[in-house]
Write a structure and sequence with these properties.
It is built from five helices and no strands. It is mainly alpha-helical and about 140 residues long. Helix 2 packs antiparallel against helix 3. The longest helix is centred in the C-terminal third of the chain and has 26 residues. The radius of gyration is 18 Å and the shape is elongated.
């Protein structure tokens, strides 16, 4: 559960950085980027809640996708430009969001690997297999 909380905090921090930039740094006035930054915050908040309350493989997978896509768009913006915006690689907000997105990716993958390795050969969690065996005895 600690890894789920780690991933939840990471996606939420990334979302908060995008909300801050949208609200205080004028990103809301940039066509396409403004709405996407606001959407990033909403998505980060929703994914964070889902990671904590829904014990499924879906939220960690979504957290990996969220972190990878957000980081990927930033790297595009910092290198060749993205939707007309050319960002810089280094800055407080860039580093904060970048670290949060890397943590979201790593934590999400760790959760998925742990949960998938806990499944039996038939693809069922070990506790279901044990429960089924106990009913057969």
């Amino acid at each position: 559960m600690a890894m789920r909380w780690t991933a939840a905090v990471a996606v939420f921090v990334s979302g908060l950085v995008h909300l801050w930039l949208w609200w205080y740094d004028g990103f809301r006035d940039i066509p396409w980027i403004g709405p996407l930054f606001l959407l990033n915050f909403v998505a980060g908040a929703v994914i964070a809640v889902l990671l904590v309350v829904w014990r499924s493989w879906i939220p960690p997978l979504v957290a990996v996708g969220f972190g990878a896509s957000t980081l990927g768009c930033f790297l595009l913006s910092a290198t060749v430009g993205f939707l007309g915006v050319h960002e810089v690689l280094v800055g407080t907000w860039q580093i904060t969001a970048g670290i949060a997105e890397i943590v979201a990716i790593v934590a999400g993958v760790a959760i998925l690997l742990r949960e998938w390795s806990a499944r039996g050969s038939a693809g069922e969690p070990q506790d279901r297999i044990a429960l089924r065996r106990s009913h057969l005895d």
